[in-house]
Amino acid sequence: MSDAVVVIDYGMGNLFSVESALRYLGAEVTLSADPEVVESARQVILPGVGSFRLAMERLTARHLDEAIQRFVTRGDQLLGICLGMQLLGTASSEDGETAGLGIIPNRVDRFDDLLGVKVPHVGFNSITPSTASGLFANLPLSPDFYFVHSYRLAVNGMTSPHATCEYGETFLAAFDVGNVRGTQFHPEKSQSNGLQVLQNFLAA
Amino acid sequence: MTSVKKRLIFTLLFNEDRFMLSRNFRLQQVGDIGWLEKNYNFRETALSIDELVILNVERNRESSERFRFHTQRLNDDCFVPIAAGGGVRSVDDARALLRSGADKVVINSILDSDPMSVEELASEFGSQCLVASVDAKRVDGVIRPFVENGSRLVDATLGEYLTRIANLPIGELYLNSMDRDGTGQGYDLELLDCLPDGLQVPVILAGGAGKPEHFSAALSDPRVDAVATAHLFNFVGNALELSRQRLLNDGMNLAKWNSQHLKRLASIL
Amino acid sequence: MSNVFWCTNCLNMSTRPRVSFDSRGWCNACQWMEEKRTLDWGARQQELRTLLHRHKSPNGRFDCVTTVSGGKDGSYVSYNVQHVHGMNPLAITVTPALALEIGNRNLRNFIDSGYNHLQVNADPTVMRILNREGFLLTGFPYFGWLMAMQAAPIRLAVNLGVNLIFYGEDGEVEYGGSTALKNKAIYDIDFMRKIYLEGGQDKVLKASNLPIEKLFFFMFPTEAELAGRTLEIAHWSYFESWDPYRNYLTAKEHCGLEEADASNSGTFTNFAQNDQALYALHTYVMYLKFGFGRATQDVGIEIRRGAMDREQGVQLVKLYDGHYPEEYIDLYLDYYGMTRAEFDAALDRWANTELFEKKSGRWTPTFEVQ
User: Fold this and answer.
1) Which CATH number fits domain B7-264: 3.30.2010.30, 3.40.50.1100, 3.30.70.1070, 3.20.20.70?
2) B135, B181, B188, B225: which one is catalytic?
3) Which residues of A touch B262 (CB under 8 A)?
4) Contacts B–C by Cβ distance under 8 A
C-alpha cells in the first residue's frame, strides 16, 4: 500500500490542478485509472468536471465504480470534488436520470431557473460549515470557495458534519461523513481556504 | 438572494513565447514567462485575482504546443481557475487545453462560424466549461461584434449577436471593448446596454482598465459579475494586490482569503 | 540627496530643471493639467483662427510651416492645420542621425497620407561633429540635430516667405518646467536659444570649429534676415489642450502611424519617440543628470491623462527607468568614433554623484522612487 494520494484519472476533471495543489502541500500524488491502484491506496480523490451520465459510464466501464465502493467499505479516506462529489450521491437528473454510486443518500438536481439566479453558479461564494473540525478545520468565518456548477446536491436534512451554501436556495456545499468527504467547490482553485481543506483531508 | 462574489480577473495575451500588451488590438511585446514570473512574481499575483484567463493571440496554429506548455506552467503557481483559449475550433482543441491545466475554455470565432461545434463542446465538457468571448467596437456609431482576433465584422449588431449566442450552451460571457482595449480610459459600460434581457450567464467585462478606479466603476454596475484586465504594464509589481485591497476596503463584494495562510501551507507535510 | 522629492501626483522629480511645486506637492505639469480642464479653450481657439486668418495665403502659397518627424505630435498638428483649419502647410522634417527603420516608415506613411513635405538633410558629417561636441559639452547626445530642428524650419520658412511656424507642444509647460509660455502662444528665437537649447549653442559651435558656410541649417536667421518680417513661432499646445495619447490615436487613424513591436528602450510605451536611436541615450544621460528617465516621463503622461495612478507608476518606473542603452552601444561608439572607455567617461561627467554611485561599472541610484 503506497503512501501517495491517488487521484482517479477517468478522463474527466482538471487533474493537473489537483495534483499541483497536493504537491504544493507536500503530498506524493499518483494519477491512475487502474482499479487495483485505487483500491490499494490509503487516500483517494475523485475529481470531475462535465456530464454526470458520461462520468458514470466511464467509471463503470473501467470498473472504477466497484473499486471505489470497496475502498469506501474498507474505511480508507475518499474525497470527491465537484462532479466527483455529486457522483457519490444516489442519482442525478442531468441528461436524463442516471444512478450514482449511492455512497451518500442525497440526490443531484439542477438549480431551479425560477430562483432568480444565473445558472451555472460561477465564482467565489461563502459556505457555512456545521462544525469547525475535520474537513472544515482552520478556516475563517464564512470562508469563500470557487464554485462552477449547474447541478447540486440537496441538503436533505443531513446531520453529519457538512457545509451549506446560499445560491437562490440552500444547497450542500461539502460533507464530511465518516471516511467519505465531498466538496462541490474546487479546493484546488480556492486559494488559501481550498488548500486548507485539502490539507485537512490529507491529515485525516 | 445570493452571496456569490464578484470577480477580478487577469488576462494574459500570449504570442510566440511572449506575453503581449494589446492597444485597440495592436500588439506590443512585453516579456516572456521569465519576465512575467519576475515582475509579476506570479505566485504573489495569483493571490490577488479570482481567475486567470490566458489567450493565445497568435495568428497561426503552430503555437498550440508552446501555448499549452505555458498554460501548464502558469497553472503550477495558480490556485484559482484558469480559462484558456485562442483559436479553439474543436473538441480536440478544447481537450488539449483542459489537459494542460485549464479549467475552462474560451471560445470566440466559432460562436459565429460554427454553433454546432459549441453544442458539441458543451455536451462533451459541460456548458459551464465554456466562456464565450465577444469583441466589439463602434462602426459608424453602432456597436458591432467582431471575430477572428477582431479582424472580421459579424453581420449583426452587438445586441443581436449576444441574443443569438445566449441561446447557445455557454457558461459565461466575456465582453471585450476593442475601442477601449489597452487605452487605460476605463471600461465601456455602454456595451452592457446590448445585453439581452434575462441573460442567464455571468458577465465578465473587459477592455480599457488602467487603474483600480476603473474596476470599482464597472463592478458597481449590477449587470457586471466580473472585470478583467489584460494591462500587463499598469498592474505590474504588487498593483493587483493593492487594487484588490482597495476594492475590499471600499466594500466591494469580492472573495476574501489569506495569502499568509496560503504560504504557510506550502510543504506542510 | 535627502532633499530630493517627487510630485505627489505624477512622479516628476524635484531635480527637473525649472520645475515648481505647489503646497500639495503637485508639480506645475499636474497643476496645468487641472487648469486645462476648466480653461476657456473656446477663446484660445478663436485666437488660433485669428492667427491663421492673418497668415492664410490668398494665392496658393504655403501659409505656415509645421515641424514633423513622422511621429504622433507633428502628424497631429499637421492634420489639424490642413484638414480641420483648411490652411496650406508645408511640413518640414530635419533628418536625425541614426534614424530608426520604424521612424522612416512612419515619416513615409505620414507624407503618403497627403502632405507637402520638405526633408532637410543637414550635412551628416557636420551634424555628427555637433552631436559629438554637444554630447561632451552639454550632455545632449543629439545637440546638433536639436539645433537644426529649431533653426532649419525657421530658416526655410523665412526663405519661402512663410511667417507662421507651428511646433507641437511647449514641453516646459506640459511636462514640468518653465511656465513662461503657459498663457503665451507665440515665442521667439531668444526663448528657443535660452530654454530649448539651454544656452548651449554658442559653446558647442565654438568647440566644433566649423566654418559658417557649413552651418546654415544649424543657426537661426540673423536679425538682418528677419528685418521687416513678423515671424510668429507658436506652440500648438497653447490653442488646444495637449494630449499625447489623443495625438497618437489621431496619427494612427489619419497618418498611418505604426507602433514598435516591443517597448522602446527605457520605457513601457511603443508609440512615441520612434525616430532616432540617440533618443535612448538622451534619456539615459537625463537619468544620470537628474535621476529620472523616459519611463518617468511616460508615467507622468499616463497619470495625468487618468490611465494610471501614482502607485502603479512607481512600479513601472522601478522596472524600466534608467535603462543603460546596451542594445545601441556599438552604434553609438561607431557614430561618435569613441572607444567604450571614452564613451563611459563622457557619461561619467554627467552622473549626479549625489544621486548615483558606481557599482560594478554602472551608475546605480542611491535614492528610491517614492
Assistant:
1) 3.20.20.70
2) B135
3) 191-192, 195
4) 60
